[in-house]
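WP5 quarterly update. Target: Thioredoxin family protein. Source organism: Flavobacterium ginsengisoli. Length: 693 aa.
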Amino acid sequence: MNFTRNLQTNLSKNIWTKTILLFVFFFAFAKGNAQILEPVKWTSKIEKKGNNAVLIFDGTIEKDWHMYSQFTPDGGPLALEITFKNQKGNYELVGKAKEGKTRTAYNDVFGVDETFFEGKAHIEQEIKITNPNLKTVDVDFDFQVCKEVCINSNKKFSIAVPSTFKIDEIPVVTEAKADETKVVGLAIDTVKKEETVQPKVEKTAEAAEEEIPAPAPARSLFSIFFIAFLSGFAALLTPCVFPMIPMTVSFFTKQSKSRAKGIRNAIIYGFSIIAIYVILGLIVTKIFGADALNALSTDVWFNLIFFVILIIFATSFLGAFEIMLPNSWANKADQQADKGGLIGILFMALALAIVSFSCTGPIVGTLLVEAASNGGIAPIVGMLGFSLALALPFMLFAMFPGWLNSLPKSGGWLNTVKVVLGFLELALAFKFLSNADLVLQLHFLEREVFIAIWIAIFGALTLYLFGKITLPHDSPTHHISVGRLYLGLLTLVFTMYLIPGLWGAPLKLISAFPPPPQYSESPFGVGGSGNGAVSSEAGKGLPEGAELGPHGIMVFHDYEDGLAYAKQINKPIMLDFTGYACVNCRKMENNVWSEPAILPILKNDVVLISLYVDDKRELPKEEQFTTAAGDKIITVGDKWTDFMISKYKTNTQPLYVITDLEGKNMNTSKPTISYVNADEYLEWLKEGIANFK
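Structure tokens (predicted):
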């Protein structure tokens, strides 16, 4: 203390020394807080729209960061949550909040398509004010923003409603100052498969109001088109469509006065088919809206209803019954087709769509819902791909009628195609049931059960293709074709590929379909033998509060429990600040912790304490508190987030720290470490453990 007083006395005599000291303190303070990141800066305002008001939120996102949309599906990173704090008795929401330009990319770790903002985030919510004395609209945003690490942030808005803001008066725009951001740590890996990024277009708030598109990912649209094209080709090979090719082409070539006119009519016929299905996609998009369909894709009832619909479609394809549109529709279309000319050709195409509905309807329905759940123009793109595959043969065979002789004859193989499609529809149905189960967290359809169902479905399909099972509309046969044999062998290989999934194999080929590995009866695989796990016997006799984590490493999830055990056995502590939805955390566990040089260290030389900052379990009332900054600590995740920020001055995950039994950092060169390669991680581990000893 005397030394400090003397130093202060001497400094007071020297203005230059005081100035230098001021700068030293400034930069030291800046450095100590530099890791508390806030990559999104927000503004908000309120505008009048008719008799309602529109809340507008604009976020500027730092370069290379991106923020997740409210339409990001469950099972991946945390979606944007918007909470209207003082809604009751003051105002009503008009529809769901609309979003500006977003992008969608596939995350191969979570197996979902993530939707996110880049550069700018624009969100609008229309409200109907019911309380004329309303002073402010209070809104909370809970959102996730990511780069190499991710942050879960909370932004509080208090948007002032001016006293002059009346329903029937002129529009008023008021800028609202948002409260200070409370940054709550949550790290999610955002390493994704890169996609083509569409050029970013700057928009004014007015322009953004006019154009609020849903996610329209470039690669996803191409994938939708490609899958739809293959589906159209499959529909072409069904008993309802295939026999129509030679009949229709012959009609155009024989009824036309010249070959050129026959070709022209066939081409018009083909484009009419495309127009009919594209218009159908346009109607679906227009009626439901891109945002609504995207939101529906994660809705429990939507998934349950579509599960039932797909079961009905599959049962129809397998031969139990046929789904047909009313005969009167086809008759009316035929009557219009008899008139000839362009209108007649268009109605011929419409007649084809109606007559073939029993085969094409289930495929079209599935495609529309799958495409519509992606939002934007996806349903139109899907119908374009489907109808193009359906229409091309009619046009090509009209141009080259000699090719008709090379077509295989109609027969039992057409029903085989239909049955195969039925099995595929049946398998896909359980994806929708799985979605509902995941959202409700019922654990009825966990990963093992889902995989077992698929093994049964594709195993039965294999038996069918090998002729061991026959269905109602199959033709008698004494042998199977070579093509059917090859398809049966392919299905058999796929069925065998699925089987190790019961024991924890990742099944990367179908990672987007089954529930994630953690949504499982046995996260380590059946019998505890999957993916680096250990047997259940190894889990016996663990100290209180411990369990077996990744690769059989003993892990604590409460700091006090882990600290008590570390003191008991006198070993250093490795703190692992992580998240349930943290992809980089999972990649570190899967790719770095599993290294032969690292795994024994984590098992034997440290006490691992994994603290989940996104743990939403509520703390007991007596353990809840308010920080000096005014932040309320309510959940377990809040507690560990506050611990991480107050102790280590950062809000990102994964974060690793090696400490002694008093909480002192053991690493000097890098006190903490995040997402790194195995070599760097190993050196960091060795340094921390050596300093403890």
